Amino acid sequence: MQTTTSGTTSSKRLISALVFVVLGVAVVGAVGFTLHSLSADPQKPLYATKSSETIVVDGKTYPKASATLGVYPDKATAAEDGYKINKKDYVQYGPSTHLVLPAHTYVTVTIHAYDGGEQLNNPYFGKVVGTVGGTINIDGVDVSNVASDNVQHTFTLHGIPSTSQDPLFVNVPLPQVKEGDKGFLPTQDPGTHFKGHTVTFSFITGGAGDYVWNCEYPCGDGSYAKFGAAMSTYGYMSGKVTVK
């Protein structure tokens, strides 16, 4: 009788252990699936357009590539540019928040910027950093900074310090579009439908690597010091850059 009881107890323990393992695997799988879903690109990646031209910078020749983005106060403004980007009516970059750039290339990015703004939390992000020449071009004028009370958003590209990929840091402040501007026409660039600023800048990529970018202007809702909503939801005011 003791042997039977012992065998039954061992069987129950084995079954319990198997159930525990199965449940553990299920939980891990569910968590992995959820994290994968949350980290998936909300839009298709935007690949930079490669050019047949080259440019010499500091005595070194680089191939050229370019990409164009917009930053919109809402979905309606994005739709005017032909972009149906995200479900939520947040301020947002588009047509994608995932840029794919070629390695060891002179990349020129054009941003059509349509939003207003207030005051940066940190004036540092009003400075231009990491671009060729240390400047950006706003509506045809080269500048090295934008006043901290005149910034609508920033495009701040960076990576985690690593020995496995080249460092890359770029900070570009975008000027506000103000209602008081003459006829709401701060630029004569038809690419913005005469409604926003045209900001152009160039930087040089290193080797292959994975980077992130985000806006450093607190443009979310009233929660978390205006870092909630669009600021804390992937695919609106943040994204990633793949260099390959």
Identify the notable features of this structure and list them briefly.
2 helices, alpha+beta, Immunoglobulin-like, single chain, 7-stranded mixed beta sheet, 32% strand, 18% helix
Task: Report on the architecture of this protein.
- With about 240 residues, the protein is an alpha+beta fold.
- It folds into two domains: about 40 residues; about 200 residues, Cupredoxins -  blue copper proteins (Immunoglobulin-like, Sandwich).
- Helices cover about 20% and strands about 30% of the residues.
- Strands 2, 3, 4, 6, 7, 8 and 11 form a seven-stranded mixed beta sheet that branches. A six-stranded mixed beta sheet has the order 1-5-13-12-9-10, with no helix packed on it.
- A hairpin with a 2-residue loop joins β2 and β3.
- The chain is globular.
- About 10% of the residues have low confidence.
